[in-house]
Amino acid sequence: MKRIVAFVLIVVVSLGVMAFTSPSIVNNIRLGLDLKGGFEILYEASPLEEGGKVTSDALTQTAKSLEKRINAQGTSEPEITTEGTNRIRVKIADVQDEESVRQKLKEPAVLTFRSSDGCKDATDYCKVELKGTDFKEGGASVVFDDLRQPVVAIKLKDADKFAEITKRLASKPEEENKLAIYMDERLISAPEVRYEISGGEATITGKYTNAEANELKDTINLGSLPLKLTEKYSQSVAATLGKLSLDQTIKAGIIGTIFILLFMLIVYRMPGIVAAFSLIVFTWVLLLVFWASNITLTLPGIAAFILGLGMAVDANIITYERIKDELKSGKSVMSALKAGSKNSFRTIVDANVTTVIAALVMYFLGESQVKGFALILMMTVVVTIITNVFLSRWLLHLLIKSNVLNKPGYYGVKERDIRAL
């Protein structure tokens, strides 16, 4: 009876923990725009100037610039990924003014160095002295001074032009000798010009942390490689449509799960109870993984989730059918469990390995939502092995060793179907 009590305690405590934590986990899972509403745009990047190149660094920095612009619009947690050699995919959920955001995104990032020379106020910075295209491509880097403090080294194309600007500003009063750095209309930094700089190379000093110095370097390098973004594809999902899709999908999933659990209970009796509990644990663990990994859940992701649930059911069915075959051959319940588990394990592993191979192909060759589907499908395979193979077998072993539930009828096998050895 101790094992029966242990089994009941494990199930009751586990169900209590899952019931208590599930609402918080579900509410904190990130939802994709197809479930939450929003829009997705695929951009193709091209150089603004003739002869320019779209490098990997330029594409990455442009993606970072897009993220900053989106955040400045008050939209949080955008999904921005680079694809191939010249494409950027942007996904934004919960957008109030979609057209305004779209208009802002397609403008090229503009880097300018400005002074207050001729302006009304010393902090006005109305005069543009340099543009991003005046800098050498990738010419900004982080170096360290004698005190091991990070500074940003820059290289310009026209040394004479830079010398003239720095000479003019160095002669100004202290409050007017700054050369402010702007990305679009956002002030990044305003270093002082203390002397004329010739040779086309300079350093921007200040009390920068490593992160701040690297951000400034990236900003200047991005400005020296401005890219034009052309919209190649877009889709928009209204928030109400996204909520409707989510509600309908969850409802369908719940109804399907109930039928599955009833089927397992009716056909397999005691193992069906173990399978039902294992499937509930499978669902909870997978949701926990989504939350802990900060995965964005989309409709294809939910499809992979439900497909994984079906595969978890298959793992149980394969095992239980093998156990029933062993019982019908006249073996004891414990012997049938050991033989059935051993014979079914290879079949389950083979089936899941082929699924993982297919998912890997989709992940590395697919894009966007195909990758999400493949990733979640691989997660379901891992969680299935843990919960519906090892956990369910351990719980079934616990029940059988109690010597209370050892009748073949408890495992869906009728006495007349048992053959004498």
Top keywords for this entry?
421 residues; alpha+beta; four-stranded antiparallel β-sheet; 11 helices; 13 strands; elongated
Give a quick rundown of the structure.
Helix content is 55%, strand content 16%. The protein has helices at residues 2-27, 33-36, 56-72, 98-105, 159-170, 210-224, 239-268, 270-293, 299-328, 333-365, 369-400, and strands at 30-31, 38-47, 79-83, 87-93, 111-115, 127-131, 141-144, 150-155, 180-183, 186-189, 201-204, 227-237, 296-297.
Structure description:
By secondary structure, this protein is of the alpha+beta class. It has helices at 2-27, 33-36, 56-72, 98-105, 159-170, 210-224, 239-268, 270-293, 299-328, 333-365, 369-400, and strands spanning 30-31, 38-47, 79-83, 87-93, 111-115, 127-131, 141-144, 150-155, 180-183, 186-189, 201-204, 227-237, 296-297. Strands 3-4-2-12 form a 4-stranded antiparallel β-sheet. The chain has a 4-stranded antiparallel β-sheet with strand order 6-5-9-10, with helices on one face. The protein has a 3-stranded antiparallel β-sheet with strand order 7-8-11, covered by helices on one side. A hairpin with a 3-residue loop joins strand 3 (79-83) and strand 4. Helix 9 runs parallel beside helix 11 (369-400). The longest helix is centred in the last third of the chain and has 33 residues, at 333-365. It is elongated, with a radius of gyration of 31 Å. It starts with a helix and ends in a 21-residue tail after the last helix. The relative contact order is 0.12. The model has no long low-confidence stretch (mean pLDDT 82).
